[in-house]
Design goal:
The complex is a heterodimer of chains A (about 110) and B (about 110). Chain A contains no helices and eleven strands. With about 110 residues, chain A is an all-beta fold. Chain A is globular and about 40 Å long. The chains are: A mainly beta (about 110), B mainly beta (about 110). At the A-B interface, β4, β5, β9 and β10 of A face β5 and β10 of B.
């Protein structure tokens, strides 16, 4: 089955700086890559997703890039704000099964 | 926000007792899921359903059973709770299967087995 790994496990950034989280996946057949944000004590919520026929997708301060050859995809957050502090989960789906990474803790320092 | 309600929100139970968690949706989505979340393990799929009375196992299904008698309700049962089942349990729904559309999560149930 699909195996998804996230790096780094914890990321601290100064407010206003950019944050990048990278995920690698194992199944070359995976074709759907969502990112979820989970604030402390809350439920995970989708923030952006990308499909394998697209290399990059942006939504305001958030972007995701996909490199199918290298089997990795990354979340980019620009101009970070305190409300970006959360755990971010990447996931990859192949053969109709979704596999989650273990999550990245992002801390935005005011 | 998607209409998903989990009950109870918190539960403390003793080892060996049966426990049932309920997920109720108002979105009429075909797919429903139960995940558990533990530190260091992220989100792990327990069971999922692709229609009324249609269910399948996830990666951590041992010790759990599910039932779906109506589109809107998906029940997770721990037949005999163990301390290793202390966790936060999330229900999720999606319009199509896991590879086709986003998951919408409920607010979670925090279960403590003493």
């Amino acid at each position: 089955g699909e195996n998804v790994e996230q790096h780094p496990s914890t990321l601290s950034v100064q407010e206003g700086d950019s944050a990048v989280i990278k995920c690698t996946y194992s199944d070359s057949a995976s074709n759907y890559f969502p990112w979820y944000k989970q604030e402390l004590g809350k439920r995970p919520q989708l923030i952006i997703d990308i499909r394998s026929n697209v290399g990059e997708k942006k939504d305001q301060r958030i972007a995701v890039t996909l490199n199918k050859t290298a089997k990795h995809f990354s979340l980019h957050i620009t101009e970070t704000q305190p409300e970006d502090s959360a755990v971010y989960f990447c996931a990859a789906s192949g053969n109709n099964r979704l596999a989650f990474g273990k999550g990245n803790q992002v801390v935005v320092i005011p | 926000d998607a209409g998903i309600t989990q009950s109870p929100r918190h539960k403390v139970t003793e080892t060996g007792t049966p426990v049932t968690l309920r997920c109720h949706q108002t979105e009429n989505h075909r797919y429903m899921y139960w995940y558990r979340q533990d530190p260091g393990h992220g989100l792990r799929l327990i069971h999922y359903s692709y229609g009324v009375k249609d269910t399948d196992k996830g990666e951590v299904s041992d010790g759990y059973s599910v039932s779906r008698s109506k589109t809107e309700d998906f029940l997770l049962t721990l037949e005999s709770a163990t301390s290793s089942q202390t966790s936060v349990y999330f229900c999720a729904i999606s319009e199509v299967g896991q590879g086709g559309s986003p998951l919408h999560f409920g607010n979670g149930t925090r279960l403590t087995v003493t």
